[in-house]
Write a sequence for this structure.
């Protein structure tokens, strides 16, 4: 299998990309502002619907039915679209889909196509493939246009230019948009107006448009595109030929199912009760819209994902991007660090699955790093409109990554050694005594840097400082059979508070289990979550020393 | 080389070798909701998305259309050919889009606005839905002019999205419109006015 462009060639692994992104304060400011805005708005429109949780359950169940009977639904969709004058194509992978689309564009004798924002076509690198075939693709979604004009990469599923603020967008437009006024202001209304003027001519003269699909109804052949700006309507109605590229999993069984998704999607995605425009069409309608309609059904790793009993739930995704907006890791690193058109929590489980089987070693190590790009805080699962248990899939893919790396990596050896030490009380006590002096390296109760090979651990994590006295030592001193202080006395009335304090502190810590780079500042807001391994070290510390003060 | 269709369908069947069974879809969400004043809610929600909304009496509809067109300063209006003739009022040049003689893209682009009816309106979301049926015309008609004046009858307003879908034909070309065209692409904040009509005005007749 060739390279699957779901990732960008030459992208570094997540930790190295994240390090660079975190150093970009402008980026972090832009992201914090944008995700903060959308989180508040989403919460407000979701709370308006008393049946939100029931809608989520319905959405989950519909998508599970789609996946369990995918072959049946797709053949029914094919029949319905064909019956209404559309042409259905099947593509095994990115290369085949690109070839089909290029062939159709050539047959329509077009050298330029207008495009509605589509994750599927971004995933397969369609624009690059068309360019190689001599066809220029014009992105008409405002954010996609910003990315295209800025020769940039997308960083969000819904708003690919979320990493740019208004002043940066103004500068990109001034520099690259033909006809843009040098005095263009940075007010969003003026920027939108500039995009309108720039694209109007393209819309009115385009022969071919390319879109994705949010849903396609197997029963009726109705294809649905949900959008805001009207660029979608332009593309879907004005050109003679319309080509829609759709992931296999976008099919829904019945018309009625849309009543669930047309409520879940807008509120989750742009935090609106309804997005400005939703277009629905089936096949070709004489006298209204394109006279030729092609639907390309894209596999590109989806069937391989479907084969994984835990991982297949990622295919329920309706690309709303709510999980990105709530993710503490995404909010700080931005989307480009994920090296893929699918960033954020959903990207961390979708990209490694869609791209699995790559024969490029650097892509493989990027894919292996993605499931670790999370604190497992679970916010993504909570907001997911189709209830994808992203943390569950992350853990599942992590274990796959670890298995793939084999038993002789430094990490695996260290873990095996730790396990050997910790399964024996005497070895554990010895280790406690040996590690006690680490306290001398600590500042503010944390050890930030250790020499190699422990630096492999502390590169991305803090180690809590070992306490002066461990819990078991304290126990022996104050309560144990050899302790003079408690000899003969078994009453509980004098039990000191530290034990109980330590217990509740430990409980709080364990609830916030997770793995986080320490310098990312990615702790979920309500806990000071330590790392998975850190949680263990913390546990040791708590058990040994209780909490001081 | 094997046919892509057969290969993909074969892959799907192989992937489902564990025969997952899907639970029946729980449809216990609200298909309708108890709303005191559906038309009032529609007016409020549509206005919330920056549509201009006015409630008018049936007898005064023509006059009110005239009022809107004057306020807008529209001189050239487009309309579907089955628009009630008495709606085409005022000192305005009306161009009719006829199935046999559709208006050119250029003519639509140059018109000051378009007047249509609608198929259904959804109160909870402030949405009007066009289905290319009576008094609505083809999709391009309501897309290119910068001003869309839409007449909604009170009996066309339903409470919820499920109620609206139940009234619509899935094979008609449908356009759901919630406010004027907008974007959230700059700092995830909604700004009205991009490629679609930048001005949506709704006259609710009851």
């Amino acid at each position: 299998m060739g390279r699957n462009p779901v990732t960008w060639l030459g992208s570094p692994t997540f930790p190295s990309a994240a390090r660079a992104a975190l150093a970009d304060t402008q980026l972090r400011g832009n992201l914090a502002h944008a995700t903060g805005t959308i989180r508040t708005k989403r919460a407000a429109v979701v709370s308006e619907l008393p049946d939100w949780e029931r809608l989520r359950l319905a959405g989950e169940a519909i998508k599970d039915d789609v996946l369990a009977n995918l072959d049946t639904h797709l053949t029914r969709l094919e029949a319905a679209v064909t019956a209404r004058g559309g042409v259905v194509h099947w593509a095994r992978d990115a290369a085949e889909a690109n070839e089909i689309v290029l062939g159709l564009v050539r047959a329509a004798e077009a050298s330029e196509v207008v495009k509605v924002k589509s994750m599927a076509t971004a995933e397969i690198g369609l624009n690059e493939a068309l360019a190689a075939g001599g066809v220029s693709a014009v992105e008409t979604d405002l954010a996609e246009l910003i990315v295209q004009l800025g020769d940039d990469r997308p960083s969000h599923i819904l708003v690919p230019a979320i990493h740019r603020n208004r002043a940066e967008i103004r500068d990109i437009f001034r520099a690259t948009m033909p006809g843009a006024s040098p005095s263009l202001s940075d007010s969003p209304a003026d920027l939108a107006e500039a995009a309108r003027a720039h694209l109007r001519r393209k819309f009115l003269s385009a022969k071919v448009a390319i879109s994705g699909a949010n849903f396609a109804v197997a029963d009726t052949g109705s294809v649905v595109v949900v959008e805001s700006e009207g660029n979608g309507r332009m593309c879907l109605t004005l050109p003679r030929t319309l080509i829609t590229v759709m992931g296999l999993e976008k099919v829904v069984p019945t018309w009625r199912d849309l009543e669930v998704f047309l409520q879940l999607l807008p509120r989750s995605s742009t935090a609106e009760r309804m997005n400005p425009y939703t277009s629905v069409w089936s096949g070709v309608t004489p006298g209204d819209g394109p006279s030729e309609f092609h639907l390309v059904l894209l596999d590109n790793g989806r069937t391989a994902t479907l084969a994984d009993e835990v991982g297949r739930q990622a295919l329920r995704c309706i690309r709303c991007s709510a999980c990105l907006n709530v993710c503490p890791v995404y909010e700080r690193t931005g989307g480009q660090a994920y090296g893929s058109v699918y960033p954020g929590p959903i990207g961390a489980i979708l990209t490694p699955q869609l791209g699995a089987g790559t024969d490029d070693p650097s892509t493989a190590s990027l894919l292996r790093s993605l499931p670790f790009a999370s604190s497992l805080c679970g916010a993504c699962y909570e907001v997911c409109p189709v209830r994808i248990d992203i943390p569950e899939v992350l853990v599942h893919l992590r274990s796959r990554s670890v298995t793939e790396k084999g038993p002789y990596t430094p990490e695996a050896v260290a873990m095996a050694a730790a396990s050997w030490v910790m399964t024996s009380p005497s070895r554990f006590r010895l280790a406690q005594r040996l590690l006690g002096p680490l306290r001398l390296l600590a500042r503010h109760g944390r050890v930030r840097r250790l020499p190699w090979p422990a630096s492999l651990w502390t590169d991305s994590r803090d180690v809590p400082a070992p306490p002066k006295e461990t819990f078991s030592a304290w126990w022996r001193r104050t309560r144990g059979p050899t302790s003079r202080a408690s000899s003969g006395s078994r009453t509980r009335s004098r039990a000191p508070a530290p034990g109980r304090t330590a217990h509740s502190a430990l409980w709080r810590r364990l609830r916030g289990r997770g793995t986080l780079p320490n310098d990312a500042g990615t702790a979920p807001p309500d806990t000071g979550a330590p790392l998975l391994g850190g949680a263990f070290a913390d546990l040791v510390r708590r058990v040994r020393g209780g909490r001081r003060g | 080389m094997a046919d892509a269709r057969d290969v993909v369908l074969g892959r799907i069947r192989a992937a489902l070798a564990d025969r997952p069974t899907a639970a029946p879809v729980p449809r216990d969400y609200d298909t309708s909701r108890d709303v005191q004043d559906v038309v009032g809610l529609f007016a409020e929600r549509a206005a919330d998305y920056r549509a201009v909304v006015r409630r008018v009496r049936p007898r005064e509809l023509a006059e009110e259309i005239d009022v809107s067109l004057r306020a807008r300063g529209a001189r050239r209006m487009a309309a579907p050919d089955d628009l009630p003739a008495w709606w085409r009022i005022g000192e305005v040049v009306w161009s009719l889009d006829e199935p046999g003689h559709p208006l050119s893209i250029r003519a639509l682009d140059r018109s000051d606005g378009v007047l249509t009816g609608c198929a259904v309106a959804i109160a909870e979301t402030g949405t009007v839905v066009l289905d290319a049926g009576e008094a609505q015309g083809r999709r391009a008609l309501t897309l290119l002019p910068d001003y869309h004046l839409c007449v909604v009858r009170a009996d066309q307003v339903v409470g919820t999205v499920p109620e609206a879908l139940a009234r619509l034909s899935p094979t008609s070309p449908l356009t759901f419109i919630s406010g004027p065209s907008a974007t959230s692409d700059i700092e995830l904040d909604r700004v009205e006015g991009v490629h679609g009509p930048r001005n949506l005005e709704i006259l609710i007749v009851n």
Notes: Residues 410-545 of chain A form one domain.
